[in-house]
Amino acid sequence: xxxxxxxxxxxxxxxxxxxxxxxxxxxxxxxxxxxxxxxxxxxxxxxxxxxxxxxxxxxxxxxxxxxxxxxxxxxxxxxxxxxxxxxxxxxxxxxxxxxxxxxxxxxxxxxxxxxxxxxxxxxxxxxxxxxxxxxxxxxxxxxxxxxxxxxxxxxxxxxxxxxxxxxxxxxxxxxxxxxxxxxxxxxxxxxxxxxxxxxxxxxxxxxxxxxxxxxxxxxxxxxxxxxxxxxxxxxxxxxxxxxxxxxxxxxxxxxxxxxxxxxxxxxxxxxxxxxxxxxxxxxxxxxxxxxxxxxxxxxxxxxxxxxxxxxxxxxxxxxxxxxxxxxxxxxxxxxxxxxxxxxxxxxxxxxxxxxxxxxxxxxxxxxxxxxxxxxxxxxxxx
Amino acid sequence: xxxxxxxxxxxxxxxxxxxxxxxxxxxxxxxxxxxxxxxxxxxxxxxxxxxxxxxxxxxxxxxxxxxxxxxxxxxxxxxxxxxxxxxxxxxxxxxxxxxxxxxxxxxxxxxxxxxxxxxxxxxxxxxxxxxxxxxxxxxxxxxxxxxxxxxxxxxxxxxxxxxxxxxxxxxxxxxxxxxxxxxxxxxxxxxxxxxxxxxxxxxxxxxxxxxxxxxxxxxxxxxxxxxxxxxxxxxxxxxxxxxxxxxxxxxxxxxxxxxxxxxxxxxxxxxxxxxxxxxxxxxxxxxxxxxxxxxxxxxxxxxxxxxxxxxxxxxxxxxxxxxxxxxxxxxxxxxxxxxxxxxxxxxxxxxxxxxxxxxxxxxxxxxxxxxxxxxxxxxxxx
Lengths: 382, 382
Known about the structure:
The structure is a homodimer of 382-residue chains. The first copy, chain A, has 382 residues and is α+β, with helices and mostly antiparallel strands. Chain A contains ten helices and 22 strands. Chain A has helices spanning 34-39, 93-98, 103-109, 129-134, 136-149, 163-171, 236-246, 248-256, 305-319, 366-376; strands spanning 10-15, 19-24, 29-33, 69-73, 78-82, 88-92, 126-128, 151-155, 182-185, 201-204, 216-224, 227-228, 231-235, 258-264, 269-275, 277-279, 285-288, 325-328, 335-339, 343-347, 350-351, 357-364. Chain A has a six-stranded mixed β-sheet with strand order 7-8-19-11-22-9. A four-stranded antiparallel β-sheet of chain A has the order 10-20-13-18. In chain A, helix 5 crosses helix 10. The interface between A and B is large, with 93 and 93 residues. Chains A, B: Keywords: Dioxygenase, Iron, Metal-binding, Oxidoreductase. Chains A, B: Residues 127-363 form the TauD/TfdA-like domain. Chains A, B: This is Gamma-butyrobetaine dioxygenase. Chains A, B: One of its GO terms (biological process) is carnitine biosynthetic process.
């Protein structure tokens, strides 16, 4: 037994009325309820051998179940339990320790994003297109940056039409929306989105009118010779965290009041209500919805209308503060890749008579992207 | 002026410090805040003429803005406002009345699903495949049934491979998942999902391990000659509503505690935490996540572990009560179409030696489906 493994070696186990008290060789104590242990049995009649899905009925376990015998086996590497009906459960120590639900262990497992402001411009999370396209390590690093910062800037992607879909396809399949699978961002004569004009776009989150707006957005610059057209990026989670400190009442309103968003054209009428700042039930940031272009007329209780406008102004002050945003002029071959429900993006106005500005974009969902990252890291073991 | 239009004819308008008090010809009173009226100006410099998106900056309006002049114009059909900077806002009466945010008007606009139990079997929401495939009216009726009941049974769809994708494609594009775009449900030698075996599947929601599980599921029966294999369907919203009445503490726990779900195979590692019963901030049902096969080991605070198992048992009792579920044996040509995050589905075990059981399935998202319904109903006017 080395120290490195001490955390996964079972030292002692004591049975209580409702749970087991396990002490590990590194001194840590875990408590596992009897019902939890029965539920997580990994034998072939509880966990399907091929699909690795549970075939045991989690929802129907006897609440008073209690093992008849408990022992430490395999030289401390395994916890063995025998249930009243004779069913046998053997749980590997390393498997069990990783799932300890003590407060400390749960806190350690909590994933927190790295929040940023304008200082990130000095040290941009950058990736070379070749690395992301050709190597597993490059791809893993690329997705990890998107996960941690909500942002990665890819350099030197071939300026060929469709290359952005090839890059995104390295992560997972593309997400289709009312704008299609891939889309061209340039000034168009008959736009169905203000992005397809030359006007300024304040930093915003795309498709805020969807129940499930796409997760990761790719914007590949093919040409940016027009005057203006600087890209603006803001970490919405950092801004929301600042709002929580500075104006807790505004933060509360924006996380508790659902605002209506809507997009309409000849073929679509996409509507959804959502809070501006969505939190998990534990208070972690889930997503930001912020896009004036897609706001539908607010349908709020009368006495919330003015406070909500005030809260939005308060959040906007933070979002548009130069200390929190970065501005960069994309050149041909650059791709900005960002978590669309976290990092707001915009652009300054440009002059379509002074040159061209053409980006190509597409989306990949977070579900599949984080899955890909876990598989690349070898975490997909059960 | 007829009575039918009285609700959209402006009778009087009085200006208060913060809002306008509008009385309509049918006697209803609406109050609109000055800031709300300025925000919702529909002139070409506030609302983009082509994209119909807002180009006015909702987030930056002067909180103390107040119109200098207010009048009723166009014989009561329009409210006209002049702002201190000379900007002019004209709002049609019918547009305005539809957006009245009085408590009564907001309550009227609230969409409520039609909850059901086993009695729905006597009066199934049925659709003929030909109607849904060939006519706009049939398609509208089809989507409306899915929206209201979370369930529609389609009859007489050609038993040709891929037909289910054609039917689903009438609503919108298909949603891709780790199971691909379309999938075959039959007993397979090397399954990566328990659905691809012959064992019983308790009623569940699919892909509970996704941040955004697919919305509408289609299952087309091509062959069901095996013994067993009856389909089971339960309205999860109705069951949750019953739990709210019967066991409020269990309901509270299941709507406030996020449980972990996970699916793993060689290529995927998809994980998400979510409450079993998700509510909107107004308390309306949003979605159900219930699938033992995909439960990851619970990582809850120690004192919640047993209460959560108890709450799940309590919900399970309702979900598996024959009074709340329907059972039907699909025949070739039948398609069950259901809101996967509302209606739980399952099947009894079947005997693969007694005959064949083959379904083909696919998903469409709710965002696009409800959009399609609004467009078919002609609601996509701004």
